[in-house]
C-alpha cells in the first residue's frame, strides 16, 4: 500500500540511532520496551545502557536482588515496572530456561507485559505479523484517516489494531511497527506538528479538513489526588539517621523513605513538632525540629500530586537502627528523596 511504502521510506531516512534497534534479542527488546513505557527515549536510554551493562543476560537480572534493580531504576518512576521486570526475568530464567516466548499470545502471559509490549517483542524479535498500538499509532492513524473514535474507549485499541494490520506489509511487520511509532514521535507530534514538511501532507485527511489539532479524540481526564508528605530527617549524636521501607501497596512500593507524617492538608511547625513529640523517637529526647529551607516540593505523578516538606529533626543519644550518610546512599529511594539526600542531607 502507498501509505506503508511512504512511511517506511521516511523511516529509513529519518530514524534515530537507538541501541535496541540493533538487535533482535528478545531480552534486550523486552528490557527497552518496559523501560520506555511512560518514559521519554532521551530519559530512558541511559537506564537501558546501565541495565544492559549490569545485567547483560536475563540470568544476570534474575540473579540480582530487588534492591539492586530498584536502585538502578531510581528516577525512572512507575516502580512497579521494575518489580515486574525482575519477577519476569526470574520466571524466564528458571521456568523457561532463559528463553522468551516466541509468539504474541505466550508473551502476553508474562508479568508486566501487556498487548503493546507483547506485540513489539513478537514483531521485532520474531517478525510476527502483529501491530503495535500506542499513543503514537493512535495519533498518526486517527489524523491520516480522520478517525474520530475516542481512544479512551474500550473498543478503540481493537479498531486501530485492525486498521494497522491492514496497512502492515505482511513480509516485514517489524519495520512498519518501528516506522509508525517513530513517525508519531518525530513528525506527527501531539502539539503543533510541522505539516508543511510532512510526507503525507497531500493525503492526510485531518490536514485537509483542518482537524489536526482535534485528533485523536480522547475523553476521561484523570482526577488528581493531592497528598501531603512531611518527611522527618533525623540526626542523632553520631549524625546517623533512620529510614523505613514502604511495604504497603501503592506508590513507591519497596522503596525507602524517611519516617513520614502524611496529612490531609499542609501543616505548620506546631502541628509537626507536637506530632513528633507524641509519637516518634520515644527513646531519644527531642532536641530540635527545623523546617527545611526549601519550599514545599510538588512531585507530580500521573494520578496524584505529592506536596513534600522535609523537616530536620535532631535527637539526643544514639537512635536504634541508625545508618550513616555513606550507607544511606546505597538504598533505593524515590527520586525526590534521592535528590534531597544528594543535595541537602544533614547540611
TrEMBL record:
Belongs to the Nth/MutY family. It holds the Pfam family HHH. GO terms for biological process: base-excision repair; mismatch repair. Residues 35-186 form the HhH-GPD domain. Adenine glycosylase active on G-A mispairs. MutY also corrects error-prone DNA synthesis past GO lesions which are due to the oxidatively damaged form of guanine: 7,8-dihydro-8-oxoguanine (8-oxo-dGTP). This is Adenine DNA glycosylase. It catalyses: Hydrolyzes free adenine bases from 7,8-dihydro-8-oxoguanine:adenine mismatched double-stranded DNA, leaving an apurinic site. The keyword Disulfide bond does not apply. Binds 1 [4Fe-4S] cluster. Keywords: 4Fe-4S, DNA damage, DNA repair, Glycosidase, Hydrolase, Iron, Iron-sulfur, Metal-binding. It comes from the Bacteria. Its EC number is 3.2.2.31. The lineage of its organism: Bacteria, Pseudomonadati, Bacteroidota, Flavobacteriia, Flavobacteriales. InterPro entries: A/G_AdeGlyc_MutY, DNA_glycosylase, HhH-GPD_domain, HhH_base_excis_C, HhH_motif, MIG/MutY, MutY_C, NUDIX_hydrolase-like_dom_sf. It comes from Flavobacterium alvei. One of its GO terms (molecular function) is oxidized purine DNA binding. Its cofactor is [4Fe-4S] cluster. The keyword Metal-binding applies. The gene is mutY. CDD domains: ENDO3c, NUDIX_DNA_Glycosylase_C-MutY.
